[in-house]
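Listing S7. Sequence submitted for prediction.
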Amino acid sequence: MSAKKRLFGTFGVRRTANDVLTPEFASRLAACYGTLIKGKVAVGGDTRTTSRMLMDAVKAGLLSAGCDVVDLGILPTPAVQFAVRNYYDGGVMITASHNPPKYNGLKFLDGFGIGIPDEMDLAIEEMYFDGEPDRVNWDEIGEEYSNDNIIQEYIDRVIETVDANAIREAKLKVVLDCGSGAGCFTAPYLLRALGCELITLNCQADGFFPGRDPEPIEENLTELIDVVKQLNADIGLAHDGDADRTICIDEKGNFVLGDKTFTLVEKQMLKENDGGIIVTTVATSQAIYDIAEEYDGEVIATAVGDLLVARELKDKEGLFGGEENGGLIFPEFVYGRDAAMTVAKILEIIAKEKKPLSELVSELPIYYSKKMKIECADDLKESVMESIAKEISETTDFELDTTDGVKILKEDGWVIIRPSGTEPIFRCFAESDSQEKANEMTKWGIDLVKKYTC
């Protein structure tokens, strides 16, 4: 892609709310999107304090461009994607996903419920900055509707997609932490319908996220880990702000990395379907390739971003995909990361295999990983990446992959250094055959970023 985006990140536009992301900003951007999409557009939001305000602004912008609008209320991103794929011409989800509460964002969807492609991002930006969206005559303003049934339909369809009876018979004890996000409106009801003994944490919707930060990383889930151990639960489950990601805690209280969850579900999906195409990003584990080789799968790697994975799954008619952060994609159901489907599938695997989660994870290929991040101004990111790639290519024999950021492949593992599309930071992620090596490689990657930012 030659043109540089001025507003959009890897998926939509994310900014501090009512500061940069004002109602005026949101309304005009939505009108630009509405000018291109035309038709009936679904609008939903997460639990942030600014979501309803921005939903109203987005709806006004869409209506003024002549679109009909369907208000879905507060619900997870995958539920909006499910609704769009089945019923509507487009969609807008108001969410900043795992970001702190002062942020919000707009995720724009195409008619398949996939994030819009780069060329549409650029067309919206060009109209926003250099042109004018359609503003239809007073007698052509769109109609506004609501759909109060979509959450229940979404839950019901998830249950239909797995062996619900096997899960019910297993009578699993589950501790659920929704982080006061949009999963509060789906996850507890799904788990009860699946016959689980349910203990909830942070399952009251609250845009201040009082219980924990919305990003489901290990340091934010200490309470969940403690409760799982104290109550001898079978599993702990945590979601991010818009409930498109699921992180698991095993019955011993161990934090299960997202790529382990990915590999576990990948193994089951390939076994059930006698192979298939798996799509993931350049930042995911070698274990995914090992499992694919064992169970007749083919792995396609994309740049980081769930909408890129989703689009590739659709184009290649893939079986399953996702990222290493707990965001798994089941393309037969939703073209996007889906926490509810992930939960249902993992519970189904535990129930049918009749093994605890820790044992199922121990049977997977073993690699060790480490993640770190470092601040970096957005305007420096490109030069930093170029400098690192130049240094590695000129001073080492390591193989380079520049699909997304800089991935350095060594004999005993790899490290990827890539700029965030939503925050002024670089993320560094390494994987190796020992934890010590993974830690060293990640620190090396961080030091490379420091070298060219200081």
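Caption to Listing S7: primary sequence and predicted structure tokens for the chain studied. The radius of gyration is 22 Å. The mean pLDDT is 96.
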